[in-house]
Amino acid sequence: HPGIPGGFVPPLDPTGIELKTKRLAPGVYALLAGHGAVDNSGFVVGDRGVLVIDAHINGAMARQIQAAVRRVTDKPILYLVNTNFHGDHTFGNYAFPASTQIVAHRKTAERQLPNLMVQKKLRQQ
Q: Helix, strand, or coil here: 80?
């Protein structure tokens, strides 16, 4: 699709996509999708809790992230970092506990709404 970086719309349906957990360093984990059109994610386990990097494309993928965290630690997910405002990084935000603080650039929220409208239009085509 023109106007979309990379020219494609990331899939909303995670069917068949399983995030694989890879330990990168003590307390630092990558969540690898193993599929070119699906983003990777990750998390860091600290003394008090967990910081997750990107919520992914939808609630199902966000729940996969949370399940991966639970396989490593029972510490709470304190922070969720949105690395950018694109839906494939933020649409899963809603599936995290209300106690999880979302961390993002101050312009992320104002850019998300127009992005949501573009994503909706592209998916209806």
A: strand
Structure tokens at 116: 């949501």
Average confidence (pLDDT) over 32-45: 82
Q: Which amino acid is at 6?
A: G
Is 80 exceeded by the pLDDT of residue 27? Answer: yes
The domain that holds 115 is classified in CATH as 3.60.15.10
Residue 89: exposed, middle, or buried by beta-carbon count in 10 A (0-12, 13-18, 19+)? buried
**For the chain, what is the domain count?**
1
Q: What is the pLDDT of residues 100-117, one digit of tens each?
A: 998 887 777 676 666 555
Q: Which of 31, 33, 111 is nearest to 71 (CA)?
A: 31
Residue 61 neighbours by CB under 8 Å, 6+ apart: 14, 17, 19, 55, 92
pTM exceeding the 0.70 threshold for the entire prediction: yes
